[in-house]
Each structure stands twice: as C-alpha cells, then as structure tokens.
Amino acid sequence: MPDVKNDALPGQRPDQMPEPDRLGAELSDAVVLFHEAIGSLMGLSAADHKALGILGREGPMSAGELAERTALTAGAVTGLVDRLERAGLAGRERDPGDRRRLVVTASRPGDPRVAEAFAGLGAAMAEVTAHFSPDQLAAIAEWVALTSEALRAQAAAIAARREA
Amino acid sequence: MPDVKNDALPGQRPDQMPEPDRLGAELSDAVVLFHEAIGSLMGLSAADHKALGILGREGPMSAGELAERTALTAGAVTGLVDRLERAGLAGRERDPGDRRRLVVTASRPGDPRVAEAFAGLGAAMAEVTAHFSPDQLAAIAEWVALTSEALRAQAAAIAARREA
DNA sequence: TGATATCTTTTAGTCTACTCAACCATTTAG
DNA sequence: CTAAATGGTTGAGTAGACTAAAAGATATCA
C-alpha cells in the first residue's frame, strides 16, 4: 500500500525502500514538483504560493485573517498582497461594511500558460481514471481522503509539538 | 476519481469544485502541509528541503551536480551544503579519486523529533491501509503510480515550455 | 463630539540567501 | 615541469522579504 512517509527521509535511497513506501515517496515528490513548476510559472515564491493556496481554498478574507493564517505580521501581508496583486493573482477591495478592513480575493490567473498547464494535467488525470472501474475509483477516493486526513493530522501534531 | 489539478487554482473555491477535484486538491494540500511541517521541524527553508530531497532520492553527488540539479551557482551550493551539514542532515567528503571534487551525502536525520514524526505517519498510514482489501490496495498503488507519472510529466512539460 | 480602539500601510532596519568574480587546490595536457 | 583547465570556497555587493514600531484611516463608545 502506498505511503508517503519516506519522502523527506534522506539516507535511504529509493531503490532500498520497500515498494509501498517508494510509491508514496514518489507521489509526494511528484506533487511537490508540480507545485514548484506552477509556482515558478507564476513567478511566485513558495510562501506566496502558499498564501494564494489559502485564499483559493478558504475564500476571500481580510488582510488580518490572512496574516493569522500565514503566521506573518501585518506589514508582511501588505507586501505579500502587493506581489499577488501585481501578478494579477489576487485583488484588494475595501470591505463595504467596515472600510478599515481589506478583503483579499484570489482571482483566476490570467496567464494562459497556467491555464494550459492545468488543462494538461486534467487531461492526463482523465486518462488515469479510465484505467479503473467505478468500484476501484471509490476505493481510491476513500484512500485519498483518509491519507489526506492522516497527513494533516501529522502535520498538526508536529506543529503542536513544536510549540511546546 | 481523485484529481490534483485544482490545488493551485485560485478563483474556484473548494465548495464549488466537483467532488473528485476537491479530493485531489486536498491530498495535494496535505502533502505540501506535511512537507512544510517536516521542513520547519528540521529548520530548513523550502530550498534546502528540496536540495535534501534531491540528495535523498538520487543518492550522493558532487557539489557541481547538485548545483546543476538545483539551478544554483557554485557559490550558493557551498552555503547550502554548509547549512545542511550544520543541521546534521548531510555530509561532505572528498572524492578519493579526484580530490578536487566533493561528494555530498544526505544522512539520516539524528533529530528524534523528526524520526518520531515519520513514525507517527507510518502508524497512521498503516491504519489507513487496514481499511482496504488486497485488491483495492493494488488498484490504489496503481493509481498512485500513474498519478505520480502524470504529475511529473506535466511538471516537465511546464519546465520545457518555460525554457522556450 | 471627543477619546479610544481596530485595521492596514508605511518606514526603517535587519537578515538571509543569492550572484559574480577572485582565489586556492588539484588534475590533466603539452 | 610548467600551463591550462576543473572543482569548490571565499568575499563583496545586492535584492527580497521579514519584523517592529509609528502613522493614517475608519469605527465604536461614552
């Protein structure tokens, strides 16, 4: 069974890992690789990309909330949003209800190369899907959900231990 | 079926995505989150973490090769290896055959917290595995392999288009 | 209304990691 | 054996992004 745990474990080369771990490590690497490729295509640093991900996932939020979610200071968030805005990836709007507040919204990237990249991945994934029966796909979906949860929980545990 | 393509696509919120895409995005996010947690636990920047990943995956290599693989200059690699060495994550050795060359080797992290984190993930994943039959696990393993390949291919395509 | 609190931006200073170029050490070629 | 080439390090200078603190704008409360 696949498993992601060895991805960042140096000192053990892929060809020495048990098969399931190797697969997990490869998936993890591939995800990160794709992330990086998209990021560099957009001209974003990892931190900016992460912030954009938060915005995309959780929807528009105020600068202060974004600061909290990214663990940055308010000043740093101003610069962050500047960069995203300049790249055409996010927008600033004043909150009509409270005009001190700022609402930062992720906008769909206008860059056609980015759209193309996602379209390419979509097509490739459609092909992957075609290899499996509905039952198998259901199992895969469940595995993905459980694995995501496990990864999140571990990440949270690490962060918690870090605080202590 | 799961699909990773929307992960970095802002402008579409998770609750508006089709189910399979949402799952893929979540897995992708979770992988990245875990990566970051481990990285911060080791006190590594994203770039350092990436370099360590290359070393772990491809085995020991010379500083020059590492420079090429990371797209950094020679000087920057010196600093990079300094940091990794200081953190106890990599070692420098002179190549006995050509004593100008340096062989950089990733070493298993001595930090018990890192080992603990990986052990925790291993246990969690074992539990996930227990939910599935051997046939299902086989399908999952295949999906993971195919998806990794697709992600890698897309990342490579992006990089190639970028050069042009 | 005036005082105070909240949210963001600005400014000044710092830190880190990078590039480029000069510099050692070693190897290879003439 | 010297001259040129190769591999890595060192040092100067630079750029980007961060923090902290002051400032600006708006809101809330008495």
UniProtKB/TrEMBL annotation, chains A, B:
Disordered, as annotated region: 1-22
Signal peptide boundaries: none
Pfam families according to UniProt: MarR_2
CDD domains assigned to the protein according to its UniProt record, in alphabetical order: HTH_ARSR (cd00090)
Alphabetical list of SUPFAM superfamilies matching this protein: Winged helix' DNA-binding domain
Gene3D superfamilies: Winged helix-like DNA-binding domain superfamily/Winged helix DNA-binding domain (1.10.10.10)
Stretches assigned to the HTH marR-type domain: 20-152
Protein name stated in the entry: MarR family transcriptional regulator
Source organism of this protein record: Occultella gossypii
